[in-house]
């Protein structure tokens, strides 16, 4: 049986990619980010939206994201994206609801999607999001 050089090169490349992926996983490169303090949430908000100064913060209990509000009543949603947090200021089209005690925020942006957060007083944040406009 004769194997073509192209197939051999493809298989070699595939094996190398799988080995590198296993090595990265074994070294725990690229862990899921976590917010454990309001200061971390403020820093992530600054990275996401330059000049955003939070006046109220609600952290997810597991550190998977946060909702922040500024003095102008803009609401910023932070959620994990790779090894960092991505943030979006919610538009009037955004919707929020409470499901099993967690707030589910639909940003109305197809590429950003929605997020489910377990935060203190989710109903107050639903009201803030509904008041955007």
- Overall structural domain count: 2
**Nearest-angstrom radius of gyration?**
20 Å
Strand order in the largest sheet = 1-2-3-4
- Helix count equals 3
Query: What order do the SSEs take from the amino end to the carboxyl end, as H and E?
Result: HHEEEEEEEH
Which sheet architecture does the biggest sheet show? 4 strands, antiparallel
SS-derived structural category: alpha+beta
Share of β-strand residues: 25-35%
Q: How many DSSP-defined strands? A: 7
The multimeric state of the shown protein is: single chain
Mean pLDDT: 91
**Shape call:** elongated
Poorly predicted runs of 5 or more residues: none
**What is the helix fraction of residues, given as a range?**
25-40%
User: What distance separates the N and C termini?
Assistant: 69 Å
Brief overview, please?
The chain has about 130 residues and is α+β, with helices and mostly antiparallel strands. It has helices at about 5-25, 40-50, 120-130, and strands spanning about 55-60, 65-70, 75-80, 85-90, 95-100, 100-105, 115.
How would you explain this protein's 3D organization?
The chain is built from 3 helices and 7 strands, in the order ααβββββββα. The protein has 133 residues and is an alpha+beta fold. It has 2 domains: 30 residues; 93 residues, no CATH class. The chain has a 4-stranded antiparallel beta sheet, sandwiched between helices. It has a 3-stranded antiparallel beta sheet with strand order 5-6-7, covered by helices on one side. It is elongated. The model has no long low-confidence stretch (mean pLDDT 91).
């Amino acid at each position: 049986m004769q194997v073509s050089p192209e197939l051999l090169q493809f298989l070699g490349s595939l094996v190398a990619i799988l080995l590198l992926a296993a090595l990265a996983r074994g070294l725990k490169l690229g862990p899921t980010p976590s917010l454990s303090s309001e200061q971390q949430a403020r820093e992530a908000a600054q990275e996401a939206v330059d000049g955003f100064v939070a006046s109220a913060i609600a952290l997810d209990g597991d550190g998977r994201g946060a909702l922040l509000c500024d003095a102008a009543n803009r609401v910023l949603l932070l959620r994990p994206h790779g090894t960092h947090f991505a943030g979006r200021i919610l538009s009037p089209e955004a919707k929020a609801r409470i499901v099993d005690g967690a707030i589910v925020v639909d940003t109305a942006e197809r590429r950003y999607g929605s997020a489910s957060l377990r935060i203190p007083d989710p109903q107050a944040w639903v009201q803030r999001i509904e008041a955007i406009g």
